[in-house]
Design goal:
By secondary structure, the chain is an all-beta fold. It has no helices and 11 strands. A hairpin with a 5-residue loop joins strand 5 and strand 6. The protein is elongated, with a radius of gyration of 14 Å. It starts with a strand and ends with a strand.
Length: about 120
């Protein structure tokens, strides 16, 4: 069974930094894409950053220049370096991935359980 496990969240003051990690495991043959989303209280889940096939990266306008997504393919792990954090970055951050298991001919979408990021002013 595929699992995505996020870590690295916490409480930080405005202007500070955090590094989130998302590790995928569970009979993985290949990963087509990995993304970070976030959901603030009372708001819809929104795209933050992601790797698509071919190692292209995309960022939400609200985080461009502050957040950087990287990944370690050997570890099936994606990272989100978040700098110059603002109170409006406060949210639960979720990892999302399109993964093909050894037992499947298709890619399926998976979500992690999320990690809380709180930025105080």
């Amino acid at each position: 069974q595929v699992q995505l496990v996020e870590s690295g969240g916490g409480l930080v003051q405005a202007g500070g930094s955090l590094r989130l990690s998302c590790a995928a495991s569970g009979g993985i043959r290949s990963i087509n894409a990995m993304y970070w989303y976030r959901q603030a209280p009372g708001k819809q889940r929104e795209f933050v950053a992601g790797f698509t096939s071919g190692d292209s990266t995309n960022y939400a306008d609200s985080v461009k220049g502050r957040f950087t997504i990287t990944r370690d393919n050997a570890k099936n792990t994606v990272y989100l370096q978040m700098n110059s954090l603002k109170p409006e970055d406060t949210a639960v951050y979720y990892c999302n991935a399109q993964i093909r298991q050894y037992t499947s001919a298709y890619y399926s979408e998976y979500w992690g359980r999320g990690t809380q990021v709180t930025v105080s002013s």
